[in-house]
Amino acid sequence: MAEPVNAFHSIQTDKPVQHINALIGPLSCDRRVTVFDAGTQKPFPHISEHVGPIIVVLEGGFEIRRTDGLVLVRGGGPYVLGLGEALYGRGRHTIYCTTALNIVSLSKEEAFEIVDKESLWSHVANLLAWQLQLMVARDEELTSVDAYTMIRAKLSELYMLKTQFGLSFNIVDFIQQRTNLSRSIIHQVISELKRGEYITIVRGRLVDMKSSLPQKY
């Protein structure tokens, strides 16, 4: 069955690995690796007094969440977090470790000294540009649209995660954590899509979906 198109997920999986790897080597060289267990949740970007705001993710998966629990982005190593926050001084989010997370951290001053010395700003720019496009695509799915449009977009993302990576999530939890819609609204829409045989759910998990869901509810 053909997979539904989801701009946010497509951009998310098209990670600029070449540029990230060009940054990871110099930024992580000869630095101590810190390991966080799966399920750990910390403030981001200032995880602790011992962890700098520039975080080089060597291995493992994470989610960046708002303080109210809304999932903004999901990612995994290799990755570099905190560059934008270091440049503009914002950071009111949390990082949640979906698996064990191996990181190296640096202060803003240490990181940018290395970037200057190694002439890495083009790689920083490419990474930040990709992250910007990711947030634009996410906002297009969730801003000034109705509840059904949000649910439809997240179902497409969830189905791609299943087919491409074999990942499985509770369908209601997945949608609620990424939209803040009420569980009753999500259940109502999901029930109608099941009744119309657009989706197949087993034990609360999406197992199959038609390539084209209705545009309107």
Automatic annotation (TrEMBL):
Residues 147-214 form the IprA winged helix-turn-helix domain. Pfam families: HTH_46 (PF15977). This is IprA winged helix-turn-helix domain-containing protein. The lineage of its organism: Bacteria, Pseudomonadati, Pseudomonadota, Gammaproteobacteria, Enterobacterales.
